[in-house]
Design brief:
By secondary structure, this protein is mainly beta. It has four domains: 92 residues, Baseplate protein-like domain - beta roll fold (Phage tail proteins - horseshoe like beta roll fold, Roll), CATH 2.30.300; 96 residues; 84 residues, Elongation Factor Tu (Ef-tu), domain 3 (Beta Barrel); 60 residues. Helices cover 12% and strands 39% of the residues. The chain has five helices and 22 strands. Strands 1, 2, 3, 4, 5, 6, 7, 13, 14, 18, 19, 20, 21 and 22 form a 14-stranded mixed β-sheet that branches. A three-stranded mixed β-sheet has the order 9-12-11. A hairpin with a 4-residue loop joins strand 20 and strand 21. The protein starts with 5 loop residues before the first strand and ends with a strand. It comes from Lentzea guizhouensis. This is Minor tail protein.
Amino acid sequence: MALPVYRYQIADLATNRILEDVRLTGVSFNKPLNGSGRFDATWKLGAKTRHLDAYDLTMPTRRCIYAWRDDRPMWGGIIWTRKYSSTSQTVTIGAGEWWSYFDHRAVLPLLPASPGIFDLAGLAAPSYAGIDQNQIARNLVALAQSHTGGDIGIRLDLDTTTSGQLRDRTYPPYKLSNAGEMLRNLTGVIGGQDMVFDVAASSTGAAAPDRVLLQGTPWLGQQGSSHVWELTGSATSYEWDSDGTRMATRAYAVGEGVDLGTPIAVSEDSSKYAIGFPLLELDTSYDGDDPDVLGAHAQGDQEAARLPVVLPRFVVRGDVPPTAADVSRGDDGRLIIPAGDLFHRRGWDGPVRVVDIKYSPSASAERLEITAAPMLDDVA
């Protein structure tokens, strides 16, 4: 089976016009769920590139880059950094997915001409009451793109999904809320939607891909059967990264109050002490002083932190099913580590959810590093 061909194009950010196909080496890029991915590569200059204006083509914040797998767009984002070495005649390129742009924008209504120093804080706050969280996200992107010079061409008409979760959100201008962070906040609450900025084949037949915002209902992921990866099969290696620094056997939920009047709810799981775990504590502050609400928070915090957390990562071949084109952020899968493994001596077989994919294409191999959603590191 022939390996897929990866190719790379640089485009103008403002117009999405393809400017040049470029030959890149050392390419790696990732696609995280609910965050912005990164693209890194090296462009070797020389006699064959003398007709190209490398300085102009790699201008940070003015140019963007696309990665294609055969005829399928796989990644797109803004060039933020570049470094040229005349010794090696190479340009090192660093880019971020479209989400990274909104990390450089504030949630603000359109500004008046030549605003005075007290005008901005007094502007009407963008506010949404009883609105589906997916629509709030689209509204935030649309608002950012409505400012002069702020439209980077994110298509909001290609995904009209709803999540069924209605939210109230207000963004006072005096807070200068970061748009990228406010989008992440929507994904981080209980029942929050999955969200990614991505690329898709042009809906108009243009040479450049469409830039799109995709949201879940509320979760993204494949339809149908889960993917299966088995070590020594489609999976070639794995990392098992455990962290006990946030484990808690006793959790405190701290409400609003002053000094001796501060309400504090406590939830404790003493069963862990009999199997060798020590007393571990955490505290979290919450609004209000309702004892039932604070008690529920304490119980939920303790339950979520009841064991060390593991962040599994595993490397898979991208040219065998499920291929690199079949796996997306949010997909469900099953990881199988056969018995006799040096670390998992009894083996491990369990469900995983894809939250990040790192692509490392080369002429001799196609490898994907998949990061699974954090899981509790269960004790037998």
